[in-house]
From TrEMBL:
Residues 2-92 form the ABM domain. One of its GO terms (molecular function) is catalytic activity. InterPro entries: ABM_dom (IPR007138), AI-2_Isomerase_LsrG (IPR050744), Dimeric_a/b-barrel (IPR011008). It comes from Streptomyces violaceusniger. The lineage of its organism: Bacteria, Bacillati, Actinomycetota, Actinomycetes, Kitasatosporales. It holds the Pfam family ABM. This is ABM domain-containing protein.
């Protein structure tokens, strides 16, 4: 399993446009083969900051996601949407255990 987690920060004035673009990206991504979880949500304390959490069956599934039209479309709009910072990491085969 592959886990992707992190944050993306956009210009606060772009918040609503990013949210609209994220809705399309999220809907399309969740339908992909190999996608277990895809969450992209707005940080309630910082306008323009979005948090990302993904779980994928394999690196192949994640690579296919990167090549998908909806991912390419979103990635191609990052500059237009006012991206300021991105801190996203991939975790390969993390150990998963119940917390409680």
């Amino acid at each position: 399993m592959i886990v992707v987690s992190g944050t993306m920060t956009f210009a606060p004035a772009s918040h609503d446009r990013v949210l609209d673009a994220a809705r399309t990206l999220t809907r399309e991504t969740r339908a992909e083969t190999g996608c277990r979880t895809y969450e992209l949500w707005a940080d309630p304390d910082q306008r323009g900051r979005f948090r990302l959490f993904e779980e994928w069956d394999s690196q192949e599934a994640l690579t296919a996601h990167f090549a998908s039209p909806h991912f390419q479309a979103f990635g191609g709009r990052l500059g237009e949407l006012g991206i300021e910072a991105m801190d996203v990491h991939r975790y390969i085969d993390p150990t998963v255990a119940e917390l409680f």
